[in-house]
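hi! just following up on the protien thing from before. the input was this:
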Amino acid sequence: MDTFMERAVHLAVENVKEGGQPFGAVLVKNDSIMAEGVNELHKTYDVSGHAELLAIRRAQKKGQTNDLSEYTMYASGEPCPMCLTAIYFAGIETVYYCTSGETAAKAGLGKAGEIYKGLQKPKEKRHLAMVQMPLLEQQENPMKLWKEER
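and the predicted 3d structure came back as:
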């Protein structure tokens, strides 16, 4: 097993022993670990406290950048839709993982499968209602302002 994946799995195992979920993530650049994370939902009561997201946040803060395109993610489990989206936004191009989402679901972890299926549906057929509302006439348009400032 690759040493970086070995570290991600070790983090996951230690997290389970401390009362957390079996997820660990390691971000690597130039053959060096730049950041790590484990699921911290049991500590923070924050649904975004996933191992991959925490590793991304730490790497971005450490490097003072949003661009992690030169990084590789090693995760003990297949990233959920939220983590996968963050991975895309960060520019990470390769993710290695051990446990599949299906295996995690069979162990009673998460709703990733349901979310992936829901995202394939048109907005109006999803379980979550998405309702677009217009800006009020007296409001400044933040998108227009952002475009003008560039």
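The longest helix spans residues 3-17.
The radius of gyration is 18 Å.
cheers
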